[in-house]
Write a structure and sequence with these properties.
mainly alpha; Serine Threonine Protein Phosphatase 5, Tetratricopeptide repeat; 2 domains; 14 helices; elongated
């Protein structure tokens, strides 16, 4: 269950009201927004687990009527893509400007869609609503704006879903994905760049090691230098533990040795 949106304790007392009052409150929650949000969906799911009375009323009376159709239609209407290639084809056919990508946080007027919000909120339970429709490899699926699921989870530092994505495995060409664009329109940061900018040093190190393993000396340093910007590098360096500082140093991405705090590239004094 979503831990970032705790249930309002007062909602648990809804079972004391007549069913018509409960249904009116639920209707107001469900239809008050331009599109179904994770906050609303997750609250409804939590209410069904509050007590048996609410579970029966919500599952078998309220959801069993028009609300079920609305929720089902909203879930089915969510736009997502199997991978960046599918997302690119869909977005370009729709005439999306390839130089203007949707912000990773969603359209300014609407915010993130339901599935993106679930990833941002690291809600494993609500993610399960969609899991059966998704391919085995989850991280390279894309949301409505073309952002990979992995980049969304990295941006929000969604630990539980990141664990789920990494456990499911990388796509067929891991190096192309890790160092590739986080957005299907091929503009903006790389997937590993998003890990760096979000200061998620655990995920960054995991992706770094995988990239190094796959490339096996075939242009690894050139790749990381090209696909991690200065700003992203500065962000990850600011939180890098010693082992990661050493990895960055060995790739030539930092001039200061993590132990000596001295640069072998310059014949100067030790920094203090």
């Amino acid at each position: 269950m979503c831990q970032t949106r705790p249930l309002n304790p007062g909602l648990g007392t809804l079972s004391k009201f007549p069913p018509e009052i409960i249904f009116k409150i639920l209707d107001d929650m469900l239809y008050s927004e331009p599109r179904l949000t994770h906050k609303t969906l997750c609250t409804i799911c939590q209410l069904t687990k509050t007590n048996k009375t609410l579970e029966t009323l919500i599952k078998y009376q309220w959801i069993g009527q028009k609300a079920y159709t609305y929720i089902k239609d909203s879930v089915n209407a969510i736009e997502w893509h199997l991978d960046s290639d599918y997302a690119y084809d869909f977005l370009t056919r729709r005439g999306v400007d390839q130089q203007t990508i949707m912000p990773i946080t969603g359209p300014a007027d609407l915010g993130p869609d339901l599935l993106t919000s679930i990833i941002f909120d690291d809600c494993v339970d609500c993610f399960e609503w969609f899991a059966s429709a998704l391919p085995p490899t989850l991280m390279n699926c894309c949301n409505e704006g073309g952002w990979t699921f992995l980049s969304l989870a990295l941006h929000a530092r969604s630990g539980k879903l990141l664990y789920r994505f990494f456990s499911a495995g990388y796509p067929f060409e891991p190096s192309d994905f890790i160092a590739g664009y986080a957005n299907a329109l091929e503009i903006g940061p790389s997937n590993i760049g998003v890990a760096a900018s979000s200061k998620d040093h655990v995920s960054f190190a995991r992706m770094w090691r995988k990239l190094k393993e796959v490339l096996n000396g075939r242009g690894f340093q050139r790749t990381v230098r090209a696909r991690i910007s200065r700003q992203e590098l500065a962000a990850i360096k600011s939180v890098a533990p010693p082992y990661l500082q050493k990895m960055l140093y060995e790739a030539g991405l930092t001039v200061l040795h993590p132990r000596s705090r001295y640069s072998p590239y310059y014949d100067g004094r030790r920094n203090r």
